[in-house]
Every structure is written in C-alpha cells, then in structure tokens.
Amino acid sequence: MAYDFDLYVIGAGSGGVRAARFAAGFGAKVAVAESRYLGGTCVNVGCVPKKLLVYGAHFAEDFEQASGFGWSLGEANFDWATLIANKDREINRLNGIYRNLLVNSGVTLHEGHARLVDPHQVEINGERFTAKHILIATGGWPQIPEIPGGEHAIGSNEAFFLKELPKRVLVVGGGYIAVEFAGIFHGLGAQTTLLYRGDLFLRGFDGAVRKHLQEELTKRGLDLQFNADIERIDKQADGSLKATLKDGRVLEADCVFYATGRRPMLDNLGLENTKVKLDKRGFVEVDDLYQTAESSILAIGDVIGRVQLTPVALAEGMAVARRLFKPEQYRPVDYAMIPTAVFSLPNIGTVGLSEEQAKADGHKVQIFESRFRPMKLTLTDCQERTLMKLVVDAETDKVLGCHMVGPDSGEIIQGLAIALKAGATKQHFDETIGVHPTAAEEFVTMRTPVAG
End-to-end distance of the chain based on CA atoms, in angstroms? Predict the structure, then answer.
C-alpha cells in the first residue's frame, strides 16, 4: 500500500532528529512530531543548560584563586535571574537551529502530541497519517517518588526555571544528575546538602573515582549525607520546607530537589493499539535492530533504557536511518568503550572498565594511579587534587579503562577514548610523548603499578 510517509518519528530530541534528517537525506519521505520543544531533554532541560550552569558555578572558584596570580577583585555578586535569562536565550537559539536542520533536510514537522492508532498509523492534532516505519524517540522524564509532601519537591526540569536561587537546598539522589546539581547549587552560593540512601554515590563508577570525589566535595564544604533518605516533606507557613528523614532527623530547606531516576516518556502514546512490549523496568523492548515486537515500529534513545546518553541516541538514530534507507552504509552501534563525563565540580571523565568491573569480568589487572595538585593551583591556597587512573590487563597489556577526576576531565578523556577504542596497550601509553606542562601528560608518565 502507499503510505503518507516512509518514516514517522515521534519525538524531536537528539536521536529522533538525527534519524529523521539522515533518512530524509537518503531520499525517504519523513515526518517528525514534537509536543514540547525541539532538541529534546539534552538541549532544553539536560546537558546543554546544565553545563552552562556548571560554568556559572565555577566562577566562584576562579574569583577566589585570581588573587594568587596578582588580580585584585572587588566583591563578586551573583545574579541568578541574569544567568537563567541568558541560558534561556541560548536555548531558544538552539531550538531555532534544530527547526532549521529539520526543515532544510526536507523533513515535515508536526507540532503536537502524536499517538499510535495502529502499527502503521499515527494521530496528531485531529489528523491521521500512515507510515511504513514509525520510530519512537520520546525520551525520558524525571521521576519524583510518591512520598507524603512529594508535590513540594522539584525535579531537574523545574530546576532550570527557578525564579530565584534557593538559600538552602536538599538534593536527593546518588547518580550523576544529583552530584552535578549539588555542585551547581553549592558553587552558586546556596547552602547545599546531598542526601543519598546508599553508602556512596555514583554506583557503577570506579571505586577510586567515587571516593576521590567524595573527598574533594567535602573539602569544598558540600554537606554529604549517605545512608539517608526522606520520609516526608512538609511545607511551613513561611514557605520553607521541612524534610523528615527515615532516621527521624529533620532538615529545613527552601528547595528539595529530587534526582532519583527517570522513566520512559510513554504517556498517552497509544502503545495499547500495537504489539509493542515493555521490559521489566518499563522501557520499550527492542531487538538489536531497534525493532519492537511490532516490526513496523522501532525505538531508540532514553525510551529503550540502554545507555542514556545523547551521543548514544545520535548513533542509534543514525543506525536506524542507514539500515532502513541506506543499507550499504549500515553498521551496528558499538556500545563498548563509550566515554562519559560527570560535570561535577571537579569534573569526572571516564572510559572503559572500572577496576571492579574488570576484576568481575575475570581480568588479572594492574592499576596505575596518580594524585596531584594541578599546576594552576600552586599559586593559590586551594588544596584540590586531581586523580588519574589506568586499569590494565596484566596478561595482554591492553588498557581496559581510563578514569580522571579534575579540571577538563571530559575534554581529556575524549582523546583517550579513541586510543582505547583502537585497542591501545600500556606500552603505547608509555611510548607516547606528553604535552608539557599539562595535567593530561600524567596519563603517559605513570610507570609503577600501585595494585593489581
């Protein structure tokens, strides 16, 4: 039968836009539906605005350290409203770029909430359209647990639009979003407490990285409370919040921020009209080709719950477009050696296996580790230390993982990810001449294993 479109994409986030643009470039007739904002989580309430806020929070340290280099500054004053207004302006600019990318690629843009009617048909704004293939790329959404008074808490979406910077903030969670926002609020001057129900945050990251960041955040005066969780939140007459913990303690705050997980965004999507199945965690179940149980319907990105990172969604979108409309260029997404960064203060950069994971996988490992005070800080009173770590297979000499906590970790790890992807050995690192004087050169000068 003749379809209105070859591909109908639901969701104009990173993955959906990438799939749509390239499919159109390969000659397919493509439409994209978006009910909120172009660019998805990353552009609007994720990576991009978050990093702008991280930059803003870092200036407090820059001002503090400037005197060591001979700069005399007047009293620094921070204005939250200015930062948020400038952030909003930049996001609006990016929204426009995404719109132009789609339209200039020949993609039809439908603005509204699309719903599946059957395996080949969607309904949006009262109209119905047929498509040979439908791609679900609706992303995720912050989830606040159902506790008494939970309606008084905010998630990451709302944090980007607060009218003013709260004086006292409780951040609840132990993942990278919680750690990053705790650093943002603290760096901008709020009295900040991070609560996590486990023993130590950033589960799944290398143990040395987790411990090192804990030490550095504590040095900075961030209040870290582990094995702690909120039982209820009560709003006081003056508008402040009282959080009662499960151990009976009471903490007062002006804002309670939850970063305890994200759910797939499947609201009113019409999945019940298809054979699409969800996995036990509630994400859309797909095979290695991103096909659901309904062969005409595919899904990528955060909604499938694999690796919830923007560049991964981009790669998945590209893979779908190529397989469907340019099969001679198709290659599957390789989920090994995906580099990632946590924009905490200080930053984390990591690629490959943690020491714990390498051992669990049966590798006999050698560990190379270096902790040092960055050169920039030697003229200041700041005692922050950088951590660099290599996890090496003792039998093959292959570098299994690189980990860093310190300034510009993400920038440094990106280059190392290429080396690890290419199968670099410790000998390759040792034979590489460093760039001096930089922190990055430490990765090629570590000679003596510290453990194994």
Answer: 62
The strand pairing partners of 369, in sequence order, are 389
Which CATH code fits 5-141+263-329?
A: 3.50.50.60
Tell me the whole-structure pTM to 2 decimals.
Answer: 0.96
**Fold match between 5-141+263-329 and 150-260?**
yes
Write out the E strands in 87-229.
Answer: 108-111, 115-118, 121-124, 127-136, 140-142, 168-172, 191-196, 223-226
pLDDT score of 451: 64
150-260 folds as FAD/NAD(P)-binding domain (3.50.50)
pLDDT along the chain (452 residues), means of 10: 96 97 98 95 96 97 94 92 98 95 95 98 98 98 95 97 97 98 98 98 98 97 98 96 97 97 96 98 98 98 96 98 98 97 98 98 98 96 97 98 98 98 98 97 96 61
In contact, 105 and 95? CB cutoff 8 Å: no
E-state strands within 152-249:
168-172, 191-196, 223-226, 230-235, 241-245
Cα–Cα dist 377/409, whole Å = 16
Tokens of 113: 């909430």
Domains of the chain: which residue ranges?
A: 5-141+263-329, 150-260, 340-444
Residues with active-site annotation: 436
CATH class of 340-444: alpha beta
